Amino acid sequence: MVSIEHLSIEFSARPLFTDVSFVINERDRIALTGKNGAGKSTLMKIIAGQQMPTAGTVSSPRGTTIGYLPQVMELAGDRSVMDEALLAFDHIRDLQSEIERMQREMAERTDYETEDYMQLCERYARAEEHFQLMGGLNFHAEVERTLLGLGFERSEFQRPTRELSGGWRMRIELAKLLLRQPDVLLLDEPTNHLDIQSIQWLEQYLQQRTGALVLVSHDRAFMNNVTTRTIEITCGRIWDYKVKYDEYVRLRAERREQQLRAYENQQKEIADLKDFIERFRYKPTKAVQVQERIKQLSRIIPIEVDDVDNSALHLKFPPCERSGDYPLIVEELAKSYDHPVISHVNLTIRRGEKVAFVGRNGEGKSTLVKCILGEIPFEGNLKVGHNAQIGYFAQNQAQLLDPELTVYDTIDRVARGDIRTRIRDILGAFMFGGEASDKKVKVLSGGERSRLAMIKLLLEPVNFLILDEPTNHLDLRSKDVLKEAIAAFDGTVIIVSHDREFLDGLVQKVYAFGGGRVREHLGGIYDWIRSQQEEQAALSPSYASSTPKSTGVAADSATTSASAATPSAAGEVSASRLSFEAQKAIARQRKKLERTIAELEAETAELNAAIHLLEDRMSTPEGASDTSLYEKHSRLRAKLDDAETRWLETSEALAAL
Prior knowledge:
The protein is an alpha/beta fold. 48% of the residues lie in helices and 17% in strands. It contains 22 helices and 18 strands. The protein has a six-stranded mixed sheet with strand order 5-6-7-3-8-9, with helices on both faces. Strands 14-15-16-12-17-18 form a six-stranded mixed sheet, sandwiched between helices. Strands 2-1-4 form a three-stranded antiparallel sheet, with no helix packed on it. It starts with a strand and ends with a helix.
């Protein structure tokens, strides 16, 4: 589908990569990996046509569409969330306008027998066929599903985009890109602004998508769940593995061992040749042999070894005084702005516990953190335990660094003891190796400053860590270093994060934020995810009765309570019977909705399979000229849209129940 041939690019006469060639096939799902600065984002821009290479070509068949989501983009506009998302279908609206224009022209003209009129009819037929093939105007339900999946509420659909943060506007751009359904989808760190639920929805969407995908991500779980091929950029070249990321890591380690052995053997050979040349350079009887050795030495191509894996570096927090047994106790805490954010929050964190705060953006995670730090007022009680020394990492933490200090000096001022002898190694593990350690803080990017602030925190003596999205600007190896350091930390840790792989095995308790409440879940992050999936898959009557949305059951409970207050035994029996009958009715209705959903999912799967088979036939030379296939495709698409709309309505009814 897309062919990259002999691609090279240089920055300031320094080659980033040289003579890179590979092919992106129609159904490829590629993880593009490599250390920061290796050229991943640059390669994506070249494929997207936004940057020209120094040499080489990128080619694709005519009509191939490429969609690209960069890490950073300029976002502005006064449209509503829904109107902005609908821009993804401007090409369909433009085509509809063109069809209407041709209809008017055909109605006005009377030269039916002319060649020009026949050509107009042919253009109209092709445009109408293309319009139906793209689904016509049946896209509003798809827009709603995509926005809901990426975390928007229906109440926000008409909200102006100028009121949203950069992260939420990036979600709109991602929604528009997904809705356009390009043949090749290029995503550069798409999970940076998504919560766990939205990441899981995006995973499922990409798994079901039929086109090609090229992904750059530092979310290991996301890559493993979505991609099946891994391309690594290292030492200015690429290595192509037809496996998922975890399998690639194993194969890469084996390859590096082979490189090291070959490198060591080559170095021994070079040393032997040089030794022979030096020993017999001035002996006439050995002149011929010496010249042969010199030629042999000049023909040797040096073996390059992949970048050293600094994730083996071990960091340990400096010792600190012991805190009290309960570093944090929260009782009936509530916080409101113009609307309630969180209320009735009760939690107790023991010394040494490592817990995660999870939930959709805007549900109050950062608000509670600010309450703990004493940055904002609140209602209720919150007690920070005896001798708890808090170390806090936030996205704005980087603004507190001294801009005039170098990277090395910033860390040198907080390092103590033996750690000072390893500052260069530590900086290298967090992508500040070589000359980068001598840069001044004021010239660093936002991501680089955040990484530097993280290293600084790691070296400060604290016993209570609060980390707000600590992995956003770290590559996979740096995250491993940080995770190991936190795991070995004997203090208390609160981590606000959406990175499942980072949290896995690190936290023993999860606090889930949602609907203004905070719920405690004992166990790791995947235990919590499984519990969420089980609740969503099949809500039991007992669960429904404890859910605020279950208004019918709540009303029955109120009736039961009222009846119990009266002296009439008959009234108590009647109220109990009413409650029981109501619960049975709800259970019956729930089973009916669940059965309907299962049937619609089966119908959708069959329609998708039929459409894919039909599209394969249409892609052949014979099928491309068969108009009956296009008509059948249009009918199947209409049925699929109808089934998906009914599935959405039924799912919403089940959720409301």
